[in-house]
Each structure stands twice: as C-alpha cells, then as structure tokens.
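User: Hi! I have a protein structure encoded as tokens and I'd like to know what sequence might fold into it. I'm fairly new to this, so please keep things simple.
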C-alpha cells in the first residue's frame, strides 16, 4: 500500500496523536519514524495535568508507568525559595514506555507503521520520498519529527531560529527515595532552569535555557550535578528545545507541522508533551475536515485557527518569562515567590491545567504592585537583642 490520505512523519506524542486521531476518523494513514519501537528519547519525562488530560482524551487510556508527585521544592540562583506539599499533581514517566504506548495505539487504530526517514515532498504530485528510496502518495503531510524537523527544513530552509532556540543537557542517575520531591532550580542555566525528577527506576537531572545565552552549558550542568554528588562519570546527553521559538505559520501548502516541529514548547516551564498531543490531534482534525470537504488546501488555515489558544498562551508566556529570568527582575521574583503562596500556587495550578496563561497574566497584574513593593523595598535590619 503506497497511497494514503495522510502521511505522518515522526511517532512521538504529536505524531502518534495525529495518526491515532486520523485513523480513528477512517482516514488512510502512514506513520513514518526512523526508529523501531520501543525506543528511548531524551526528555525530563514530566507529564503535567494538562498533558495527562490530553492523553486520556486522545487515546482513551491511562499513560503507562506514571509516578504521581505532589511534593515540590523550588530554588533560584542558589537560594532556597519554598517547599510545597499536597500540590496539584505532576507525573513522572520515561519516554521509552510513554512513546511506545502511543505508537502502539496509533497502529492499533489503523495507521501503517514504516521505519524510514523523510527525504522530500512534491506537493504537486503528493509524493513523499523516504531515505530508503521508497515513495508514498498522500493528500496531506503532517510533520511531527521533533525540533530538528526534516519536514520543517524542507519547507523553510531550517528547522529553528538559532538565536531563539533553547538547549538542554540531561543525565539519568540512580533512583532515590520514592517520596522525594520534584526539584526546580530557576537560574541553574541563564534564562532557564534545572530539574531533578525522581522516578521509580531512575532520577532524571538536567539543565536547560536559551542557547545563545549559554555558550558553556556543560559548565552549568557540571555545577548542577555537583549539588547532588553526581560525579564526572555521568553520561550526559544534549538536545535542542524550541524554548518559545514558535512557528507563526505551522506549515505551508498541504503540509502541517505540530509539536516541537512547530515550536510548541512552553518558554517558562519547558513543557512540550501536552502541546504536542493537542497540536497533533488538531492537525488530524483539520485534515479530516478539509478532506471531507474535498479541499485539502484549506487544512492549514483550519489547523492554524485551532492552534490560536496555544499560540496565545505561548506569546503570553514569553512576556512573563522576562519577570522570572531577567537579571533586572531577579530580586523581585525571588522575594515574591518566597513571600507569597499565591504566586507559587498559581504556578502549580498552571502546570496542572487548572488555569491558563490569560488567567495567570491577570493574576500577576493584580499582584504587581505588591510584588514591586516586596521586591524593591530594602530589607529591614534585624533588631538587636539586649541583655535585661
């Protein structure tokens, strides 16, 4: 079989969501990935409440091997900020099990899996050429092939903007106490953060930030690992992260980009799985609607309209990021985060999907006068004790 309604390149969260949604709608789908599943992927493995909701809606099941976390500790620029208990839950997993489950769901829905790599697309004929020399024909192409998207390069000449892209380093350490808190260190990398994610079988530790502001990310990673007594023998891997480098045009012609290939990663939290799942399903829904109308050329406009809430949130997040990471605002942020439960709880509710960025922005604006007062006023001197 070489003729399809949709060819999906990449079988991570975005690609698997797109393939599952399209196949369940009765479309003929090919799902192309260069790996044989199960395969591992470099990722912190944090699953937010928002991502969990999207997973359940798309796949109709629970993700495998989730560790539920409700305890968190926050640090910033070497200072302890807060320990939080009984927070809205965040979940830890490995991409080995998570992506394998999603790939299997797409295949079970009817998508045809192909191990190969994308080489090119002729829109005039609908011909997808793969690295093996094999060709497929389709009415629409969905690129979900990560931040270094070959589909994105074919469309725009490059996969991402080097001046705005993020970069992360990560390692897997031995597991620790199962009830250990999730740890976040703002400023562990410039305009970024570090993470310490305890899981049942491993502990994922990493740092990430805007690449152009971190010419020596390896030094930042080494400093961060020293906090946990991790030696030089640790195996460290790196990967780019579209840390707010959103593609305003998520495709061209009959090609749609979703997930990391479309730059849909939160520039504050670094979350990408939830947006990948949502955008993959949206791309498939737009494709189905366009194909049912006999107008595949309208799929991109339909998809872009569906993406507006995500694009809105990411634009707002880029603006708020300045409050968190700018050296000018550093003292204000530290004092505000340490001194009020409201900001901390809003951050956790955002991760849980209980509020969105417009609501967070509104809350921040209401609190801004008190934040400014708390951050800019000089610290009061300690009263000296005197002997009676």
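Assistant: Happy to help. Inverse folding works backwards from shape to sequence: for each of the 388 positions I chose a residue that suits the local structure. Here it is:
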């Amino acid at each position: 079989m070489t003729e399809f309604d949709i060819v999906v390149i990449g079988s991570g969260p975005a690609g698997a969501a797109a393939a599952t949604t399209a196949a369940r709608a009765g479309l003929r789908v090919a799902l192309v990935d260069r790996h044989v599943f199960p395969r591992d992927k470099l990722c912190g493995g944090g699953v937010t409440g928002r991502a969990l909701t999207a997973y359940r809606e798309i796949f109709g099941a629970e993700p495998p091997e989730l560790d539920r976390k409700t305890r968190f500790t926050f640090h910033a620029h070497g200072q302890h900020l807060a320990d939080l208990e009984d927070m809205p839950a965040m979940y830890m997993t490995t991409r080995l099990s998570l992506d394998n489950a999603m790939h299997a769901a797409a295949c079970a829905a009817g998508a045809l899996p192909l191990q190969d790599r994308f080489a090119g697309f002729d829109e005039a004929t609908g011909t997808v050429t793969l690295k093996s020399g094999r060709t497929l024909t389709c009415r629409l192409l969905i690129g979900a092939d990560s931040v270094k998207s070959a589909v994105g390069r074919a469309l725009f000449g490059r996969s991402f903007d080097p001046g705005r892209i993020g970069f992360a380093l990560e390692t897997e350490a031995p597991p620790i106490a199962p009830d250990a808190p999730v740890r976040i260190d703002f400023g562990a990398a410039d305009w970024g953060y570090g993470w310490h994610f305890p899981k049942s079988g491993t502990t994922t530790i990493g740092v990430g930030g805007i690449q152009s502001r971190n010419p020596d990310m390896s030094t930042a990673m080494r400093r961060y690992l020293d906090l946990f007594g991790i030696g030089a023998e640790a195996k460290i891997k790196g990967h780019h992260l579209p840390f707010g480098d959103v593609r305003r045009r998520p495709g061209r012609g009959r090609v749609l980009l979703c997930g990391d290939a479309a730059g849909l990663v939160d520039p504050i939290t670094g979350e990408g799985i939830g947006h990948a799942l949502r955008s993959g399903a949206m791309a498939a829904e737009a494709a189905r609607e366009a194909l049912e109308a006999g107008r595949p050329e309208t799929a991109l406009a339909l998809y872009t309209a569906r993406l507006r809430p995500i694009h809105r949130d990411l634009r707002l997040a880029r603006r708020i990021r300045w409050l968190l990471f700018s050296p000018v605002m550093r003292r204000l942020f530290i004092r505000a985060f340490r001194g009020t439960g409201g900001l901390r709880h809003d951050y956790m509710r955002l991760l849980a999907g209980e509020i969105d960025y417009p609501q967070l922005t509104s809350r921040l604006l209401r609190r801004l006068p008190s934040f400014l007062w708390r951050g800019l006023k000089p610290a009061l001197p300690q009263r000296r004790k005197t002997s009676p």
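A useful reference point when you look it over: The chain has one domain: 3-308. Feel free to ask if any position seems puzzling.
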